[in-house]
């Protein structure tokens, strides 16, 4: 008995059987692919869990220390935030105009940065 096969997502019949890569339900005729069925929820749609990556693809997390990879212009500051500036204790936020990191930069105070302009230290 193939008791490991999933129930039909349409009618919850337990009589589904494998036909090639698909699963087929003889009760309602529904055909589906077990692999795509399993992969969908893992995509994280509507989970509210957002992955923020730095300039080179490292995943960032709250509390990380990052290094600014390029000089960032700051209003009211002649030189801006220089490339190589270390920023401690970042906080990931919902993007504001493309800025998704909330942090404090020495000498500048609270700032919003773009994850694409920093690198995990
Ligand atoms: Zn069915």
List the SSEs and their pairings:
Elements: E1 17-19, E2 22-24, E3 31-32, H1 34-39, E4 52-53, E5 59-60, E6 66-68, E7 72-74, E8 77-81, E9 86-87, E10 91-96, E11 99-105, E12 109-113, E13 118-120
Antiparallel strand pairs: 1-2, 2-3, 4-5, 6-9, 6-13, 7-8, 10-11, 11-12
Bound molecules: zinc ion.
The site of zinc ion has 8 residues, from loops.
Walkthrough of the structure:
The chain has 121 residues and is mainly beta. It contains one helix and 13 strands. Strand 1 and strand 2 form a beta hairpin. The longest helix has 6 residues. About 4% of the residues have low confidence. Bound molecules: zinc ion (ZN).
CATH architecture of the largest domain: Roll
- The CATH superfamily of the largest domain bears the name SH3 Domains
CATH topology grouping of the largest domain: SH3 type barrels
Largest beta sheet: what is the strand line-up?
1-2-3
Report the sheet with the most strands, covering strand number, pairing sense and barrel closure.
3 strands, antiparallel
Low-confidence stretches: 41-45
| Rg (C-alpha, Å) | 24 Å
Q: Quick one: how many beta strands?
A: 13
